[in-house]
Predict the structure.
Amino acid sequence: MARVNGLVKLNKIYTRTGDDGSTGLSDGSRVSKDCFRVRAYGEVDEANSAIGIARLHAKGAVAQSLTRIQNDLFDLGADLSTPELEDAKEQKSKALRIVQSQIDRLEAELDSLNADLAPLKTFVLPGGSKAAAHIHLARAITRRAEREMVSMAREESVNPLALKYINRLSDYLFVAARWCNDKGEADVKWIPGGER
């Protein structure tokens, strides 16, 4: 893999360098494939894949948002795969990081969808329409990615905006799933103890 004008150029898919259980980070350093950092961006990749499936079933504003979110999640993966540099100035010019404007846009889209929904009076079960069911799955995977990022943050430095973004994303996905269920009308309601 090489970088050309800031973009990635894949010359060859396999390198054999990871056959020993290690992988390379964005800065060229090598780490174990099961370290917190790799697990965190691996979970982000899984969330991104689930969102890709959800996007196949979503329409309108949600489909457009999910496309942008998939790009944001690649930015998040790049952020997580790049350890903090000693020199903050050097880091600013070299590392791709999640920024506040990405969070602001996500919150604005969340607020716009939520304005169409009736307030919740009970918990909802993951399901309903195909789009909603897939978005709920992506939300659960996103929460797992967040847990991995929190674990990573106990061991090494994590961009606080990355943590904020992943937390807000799961909120967005919950609201988007409800919106895809006829703006909450087709939500599957939880009935506590109802199956006893």
Q: What stands out?
A: The helical segments are 36-57, 60-80, 88-94, 100-114, 130-155, 160-180. Confidence is low (pLDDT under 50) at residues 1-5.
